[in-house]
């Protein structure tokens, strides 16, 4: 069995967060172009969400009377202890984003060069895509929520639309300069933040006097629209805490 064929069997492992970083990245590249795996992954997402809430100790106590032995222990360890709930939530969110993006590409909703604009290509995770001028109408019918950070002066415009699988998001940034590595974070009403995408900003930046074009991104999350408290764009420096560039209360 070659690697391409094996990728068809990685869907469950990816949905449960069992693939390591390199294998997950390879599978995500495969997923965008494979309708079969995208459809299968979508069917796994509710299961992955439920497993994120499993209490391993309580489950063991309830099942001990009818299922003794190493098999149950191994399953609980795999699902509950080897993965933190934060990791599961982030994997679930990224998986939903990949499925949504693959479906949008197949339907022609994100026309043009999804990889970037011209020679300037911010590096985004699979759950987000850099929008070109022809793509800027994504979620255009949804009212925008705008914010300007008083310290950084970065301007953000966010559009959110609830979907059966979670929430679709369109972001527009202006008055941002680099060099920067950034991440897009959805903060839930429970206070937990989920990283939806990362990208880089070069020295010229976007939406300023040197480059009038804004930076536009499309992303998605498994969080329901009503469960999202705010959207943040953060700068990321190696070995340091993320810094807030702009926050939009939604």
Give a structural overview.
The termini are far apart. This protein has 7 helices and 9 strands; from the N terminus they run αααααααβββββββββ. A hairpin with a 7-residue loop joins strand 8 (228-235) and strand 9 (243-249). The chain is globular and about 50 Å long. It is of the alpha+beta class. The model is unreliable at 81-89 and 99-136 (pLDDT under 50). 32% of the residues are buried. The chain is 34% helix and 26% strand. The protein folds into 2 domains: 3-107, no CATH class; 128-249, Immunoglobulin-like (Sandwich). The strands form 2 sheets. Strands 1-7-4-3-2 form a 5-stranded antiparallel sheet. This is RNA polymerase subunit sigma. InterPro entries: Anti_sigma_zinc_sf. It comes from Pilimelia terevasa.
């Amino acid at each position: 069995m070659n690697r391409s064929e094996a990728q068809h069997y990685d869907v469950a492992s990816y949905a449960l967060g069992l693939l390591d970083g390199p294998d997950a990245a390879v599978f995500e590249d495969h997923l965008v172009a494979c309708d079969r795996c995208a459809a299968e992954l979508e069917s796994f997402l509710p299961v992955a969400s439920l497993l994120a809430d499993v209490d391993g100790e309580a489950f063991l106590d309830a099942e001990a009377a009818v299922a003794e032995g190493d098999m149950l222990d191994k399953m609980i360890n795999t699902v509950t202890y080897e993965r933190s709930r934060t990791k599961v939530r982030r994997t679930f969110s990224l998986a939903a984003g990949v499925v949504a993006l693959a479906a949008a590409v197949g339907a022609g909703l994100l026309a043009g060069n999804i990889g970037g604009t011209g020679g300037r290509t911010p590096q985004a995770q699979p759950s987000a895509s850099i929008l070109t001028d022809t793509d800027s109408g994504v979620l255009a019918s949804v009212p925008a929520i705008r914010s300007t950070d008083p310290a950084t002066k970065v301007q953000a415009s966010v559009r959110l639309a609830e979907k059966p699988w979670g929430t679709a998001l369109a972001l527009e940034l202006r008055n941002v300069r680099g060099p920067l590595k950034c991440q897009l974070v959805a903060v839930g009403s429970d206070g937990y933040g989920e990283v939806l995408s990362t990208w880089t900003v070069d020295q010229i930046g976007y939406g300023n006097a040197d480059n009038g074009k804004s930076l536009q991104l499309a992303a998605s999350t498994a969080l329901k629209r009503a469960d999202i408290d705010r959207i943040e764009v953060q700068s990321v420096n190696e070995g340091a805490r993320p810094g807030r560039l702009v926050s939009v209360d939604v």
